[in-house]
Amino acid sequence: MSSAGQSGTESATAEHPKAYPPPEEFAASAVATADLYDEADADRLAFWAKQARTLQWDTEFTDTLDWSNAPFAKWFVGGKLNVAANCLDRHVDAGNGDRVAIHWVGEPGDTRDLTYSDLLGEVSKAANHLTELGLQPGDRVAIYMPMVPEAIIAILACARLGLPHSVVFAGFSAAALRSRVDDAQAKLVITTDGQFRRGKPAPLKAAVDEALGTGDDAAPSVEHVLVVKRTDHDPDLNWVDGRDLWWHETVGNASDQHSYTAFDAEHPLFLLYTSGTTGKPKGILHTSGGYLTQIAYTFKNVFDHRPETDVFWCGADIGWVTGHSYLVYGPLSNGATEIVYEGTPNSPNEHRHFEIIENYKVTTYYIAPTLIRTFMKWGREIPDAHDLSSLRLLGSVGEPINPEAWRWYRSVIGADRCPIVDTWWQTETGAMMISPLPGVTHAKPGSAMRPLPGISAKIVDDNAQPVAAGEQGYLVLDQPWPSMLRGVWGDDDRFRDTYWSRFAEQGWYFAGDGARYDEDGALWVLGRIDDVMNVSGHRISTSEVESALVGHSGVAEAAVIGAADETTGQGIVAFVILRSGVEDRGDAMIDELKAHVAKDISPIAKPREIIVVPELPKTRSGKIMRRLLKDVAEGRELGDTSTLVDPTVFENIRRRNS
Ligand code: WTA
């Protein structure tokens, strides 16, 4: 394997140091110290058993791991616990019932604070009503809701009763909801009448009605639809008698006392469908004890969490795994105080996030690089207009973060004093896997650095041999971990094929990402394998070229794809958005950008074509739809654009290109 240019080997300067050590004060009192690595290395399973024991178990486990039926893991064998009790009752019992669990901020500006006692009461009411509906442990519940407090209450009520939840992002279509409801055979759907989008109410229950159908076409598994009144915008809201129930009339009137039962450590906690670039979505299955153990552990140590003083904010939606793990289970299992914000970052204007940070004195802020680049595009005067001095730690998740965005995040949002944790993980891994420890790691901009204590990863070639530093290979996880997926719902073959067949002999989990180590042993995740281009036999990661382009002062955002090329196999085609105020100088600009990439990475990485565009086509989860860009670059008929946030973006690109 040849390696292309290395965004991580740029030479260090005073202005751009190669690595950023933790601020002294931060390191001096950090929750996680370097000893954690030694402890985990000395005895990995004992380490995880110790982490598990920080939770509240109703029955102790007898074995830490049973891997005899690999790849189907059993963690904390024989143990019994209740996940919701770990997130609620435990804190109330410890005398922390008056601590705010959730500072909720609605899109129109309404707010609601829920203490741990409040949340326990609400979850108990919901649990009592779900029991009344006849739901039994193991029955699946679909949750299709915007970011209202009831969404978290519903999730925790399911967990409390042992009902695996399947949260479906409220931006998905009726068809997407139906296929997920059918695949999981959900008995109950919980939704809202509508949701606020940029200040206006938009229907949501209507999509549920469409999804569930009527008569012969009715979803066979669904018995009830429980509806939270959020927008109250439609006097003629469709109502199916016998099936539909108002939350406030049912849950609202239920008792707020509920005693939980404990479930086996391997009891299914939730399904989460990953959109997958090909084929039908997979229902990734997570279970109880191992998942909560790793979530609680990573939240505490990676976010250096102080329950008494921190205010945590994860910007993800509950529809994605980041929302499950670090908006629901991670913060609440740690007794944290957190922000839950309903809307988009630019409603009513671009100041929204910074106002929330300022008003609630947020200490810990966890968002995706795409949002950081959006902030960069809006300009630093927006964050500069706010007092962000409460922040002490910043996090990044979801995609490789380019060094330019990393530095901007650190200096503009973090005032050069907040460590950044760039956390690599997946829906399938359940929890963070590769990340700096904020008080220990000398973080390099753009690198997730090294596996967390207790986690083991390798970078290997096609023959399962470790690659040399600087060479690109496949990222694999060579040891089971507590929050690992336990399967693909109803499809064991797909589970084995997708994740375990590539390195079956070794028994390694294939993550689907390319990665490399640099000369200092720092790990760089380069993006999905299918985002790796092959140009004249050289492997070049799309994210490396993107990173170089975004490193040019005129570029706000870039998406790069490998387009079929007669001579070189693939040719690099880049779509770029210019920063506001930068003049598009036509060919001169394009030539300059090409030269910039050639210089920053290598002439082999120089794009064949650069197209300046006003917007990039993104899925609702914020991922750039490279497949569609490929269609444009290769002059094909467009594929399916239905999952795009804004399909017209795409038409603009096409028009400019034709
Ligand atoms: C990518 C999101 C680089 C990666 C938690 C992975 C990252 C996929 C990072 C999983 C990161 C996530 N650096 N790449 N810090 N975090 N990824 O399932 O390609 O939505 O395989 O989970 O996102 O996406 P998913």
Entry summary:
With 658 residues, the protein is an alpha/beta fold. Helix content is 30%, strand content 22%. Helix 6 (116-132) packs across helix 7 and helix 11 (289-302) packs across helix 12.
Provide the residue-averaged pLDDT.
Answer: 91
* N→C terminal distance: 36 Å
Shape: globular
What is the SS-derived class?
alpha/beta
Helix percent reads 25-40%
InterPro entries: Ac_CoA_lig (IPR011904), ACAS_N (IPR032387), AMP-bd_C (IPR025110), AMP-bd_C_sf (IPR045851), AMP-binding_CS (IPR020845), AMP-dep_synth/lig_dom (IPR000873), ANL_N_sf (IPR042099)
Binding site for ATP: 398-400, 422-427, 513, 528, 539
Enzyme class: ligase
Keywords: Acetylation, ATP-binding, Ligase, Magnesium, Metal-binding, Nucleotide-binding
Structure description:
The structure is a single chain. The chain has 658 residues and is α/β, with parallel strands linked by helices. It is 30% helix and 22% strand. The chain contains 21 helices and 30 strands. The longest helix is centred in the N-terminal third of the chain and has 17 residues, at 116-132. It starts with 23 loop residues before the first helix and ends with a helix. Keywords: Acetylation, ATP-binding, Ligase, Magnesium, Metal-binding, Nucleotide-binding. It is an enzyme of class 6 (ligase). Pfam families: ACAS_N (PF16177), AMP-binding (PF00501), AMP-binding_C (PF13193). Residues 94-488 form the AMP-dependent synthetase/ligase domain.
